[in-house]
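Q: I'm a student working through a structural biology exercise. My instructor gave each of us a protein and asked us to get a predicted structure, then write a short paragraph describing it. Mine is Adenosylcobinamide kinase. I'm not confident about reading structure output yet, so if you can add a plain explanation after the tokens, that would really help. Here is the sequence I was given:
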Amino acid sequence: MKSLTLVTGGTRSGKSSLAESIAKDKGEKIVYIATAIAFDQGMKERIKKHKESRPNNWITIERYKNFNDLSVDQSFIQSDTVLLDCITLMVSNLILESNIDFDNCSIEEINDLEKDVLKELEDMLSVIDNKNVILVTNEVGMGLVPSYKLGNIFRDIAGRVNQYIAKKSDTVYLTVSGIPIKIKESL
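A: Happy to help. First, here is the predicted structure for Adenosylcobinamide kinase. I'll explain a few features afterward.
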């Protein structure tokens, strides 16, 4: 990978704006991978605002799984920089499509689900290996402990996914109230 940058922070902390700025500085042929699913009107509006904030020459690919399919996508192949927004939505989508009965599931089912999520993440990282990459994720470890089982499962899996990516990243930013704080930089 040319470079891997992780941008994390809380909701509405300025993660996406920072990631877009980093992408503009790193490359000319930028692919934006959007992982959100427009499941209601509120999400449709959020997606619309995100699209409007991006330059028109960026290619948008909507995907949260099956990243190996990108290896035959010409716009992806020709890109030099990939911005994926966001990892936590990707994790959420993968968890929800698992059809597990989270109120009655076993720890083995949760462990298998986490392995599946990590496999999808590893597939994504291997496909984008020769590009500048900026990943956006939500910091999930600074909030309240969820009062329901699915919330705890999501928080735990997303937290471990974030740790995995941060360890592999060259640079990691934490955004707070629109202010980026560099918390890791490999030399």
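A: Here are two points you could use in your paragraph. The two ends are 15 Å apart (CA to CA). The mean pLDDT is 93. It's a good idea to check both against the output above yourself.
Q: Great, thank you!
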